[in-house]
Write a structure and sequence with these properties.
6% strand, 10 helices
Length: 171
């Protein structure tokens, strides 16, 4: 899978002038969410006291909690005041659920603005989240839980692409 560096992630987030778009990209990366999961979020799923996000009916009809980053929370608070979402955290013009195509277009536009030559998708942000956690020494089982994987072998894919993690082990 394609992995972005931390600086590329920052560039991507900063390339979005629209607050809603910045929140979407930030959540995809900082919480390791799938595109469908971010689209299904409701305002009540954001737990700012515990700094967690409840992901309901994820892949395999499972619920889980994942991380809420301080910087993402700050933007989400501004976003909530400006947009006042009703049912879903991210809604379109007519208060319906935001579309998957819109997220694809937002990421493509931000990628083009940054000049990043890699093929970047919502899943690229999720892959980057997992890889960065492992590079920082996070436990594989904890990363498995945050991603909502049912099998550890699925999460182990990230150990093969985490060259920084391998270098730390070697040292």
């Amino acid at each position: 899978p394609t992995i972005l560096s931390r600086s590329e992630i920052k560039e991507l987030i900063n390339a979005t002038n629209n607050l809603k778009h910045r929140c979407l990209i930030s959540l995809l990366y900082s919480a390791g969410l799938r595109r469908s999961e971010v689209l299904n979020l409701k305002p009540k799923d954001i737990d700012s006291k515990r700094m967690l996000i409840k992901v309901q009916d994820a892949k395999g009809n499972k619920d889980r909690y994942t991380l809420l980053a301080e910087s993402t929370l700050a933007d989400l608070r501004k976003y909530y005041i400006q947009y006042r979402p009703q049912t879903y955290l991210f809604e379109g013009q007519k208060k319906e659920k935001y579309s998957a195509t819109s997220i694809t277009n937002i990421i493509a536009s931000a990628t083009m603005k940054t000049g990043i030559k890699k093929h970047v998708t919502a899943h690229t942000l999720r892959h980057s989240f997992a890889t960065h956690l492992l590079n920082e020494g996070a436990d594989l089982v904890a990363v498995k839980e945050l991603l909502g994987h049912s099998s550890l072998s699925t999460t182990q894919i990230y150990t093969h692409i985490s060259s920084e993690h391998l270098k730390k082990i070697y040292r």
